[in-house]
Design a protein that fits this description.
With about 190 residues, the chain is α+β, with helices and mostly antiparallel strands. The chain folds into two domains: about 60 residues, Orthogonal Bundle (Arc Repressor Mutant, subunit A); about 100 residues, Orthogonal Bundle (Arc Repressor Mutant, subunit A), CATH 1.10.10.10. The chain is built from ten helices and five strands; from the N terminus they run αααββααβααββααα. Strands 3-5-4 form a three-stranded antiparallel beta sheet. The radius of gyration is 18 Å and the shape is elongated.
Length: about 190
């Protein structure tokens, strides 16, 4: 029988980590070696967060890690209040465009988002959210495994795009945030 304080300890571990954790990592953090019980507790916590009207969620990444994260409810508030070092609203919009249209040529992103997008692309690459592949005089842009893990999405391109659009709709994002110039309702050009 697990300790009554185990559930809040697991929740605290997910909160403090600020990154996806495997069940093994959670076990080590809370000093408890029954992986199945820890997994059950994490699933209970996921259900708890889903059942309340919260800005937080516990997501499962494509490599079966768990992350306590903000739901993508209010990107403009996140951009204003997030500590320095995280993404600006412009970088988030650029990242959304890349995620929905990937693989996409850099010059196409610039055409849609404007010349300031060069700065955002550089920031996204520096932070590891996107990968760039040189192609002639331009680059091909696509999201990275870190992007998928960080936002609780699948790394498979088709699934990632579907999950991203589903999450955006599920969270009731305003229509103007769902519409990115150059992308139709299904995320294609």
């Amino acid at each position: 029988m697990p300790d009554a304080k185990l559930k809040p300890k697991v929740e605290a571990a997910l909160f403090i980590a600020g990154r996806p954790l495997s069940v093994i990592e959670i076990c080590k953090a809370v000093n408890y070696d029954n992986e199945q019980e820890i997994k059950t507790i994490v699933e209970e916590l996921r259900t708890d967060y889903q059942s309340r009207d919260s800005a937080l969620e516990i997501a499962v990444t494509s490599n079966n890690k768990y992350v306590l994260q903000l739901k993508p409810l209010f990107p403009e508030i996140i951009a204003k209040l997030a500590p320095p070092g995280l993404l600006t609203l412009g970088a988030l919009k650029t990242l959304s465009l890349i995620a929905l249209k990937q693989p996409i040529k850099q010059h196409e992103v610039i055409k849609i988002r404007g010349s300031h997008a060069y700065k955002y692309i550089h920031q996204l690459e520096e932070k590891g959210f996107i990968e760039t592949i040189p192609e002639g005089r331009t680059k091909i842009l696509k999201t990275s495994q870190l992007f998928a893990d960080y936002f609780g999405l699948d790394y498979d391109l088709k699934k990632l795009k579907m999950q991203l659009r589903w999450k955006m709709r599920k969270e009731g994002l305003p229509a103007e945030l769902l519409k990115i110039p150059g992308i139709d309702d299904e995320g294609t050009a």
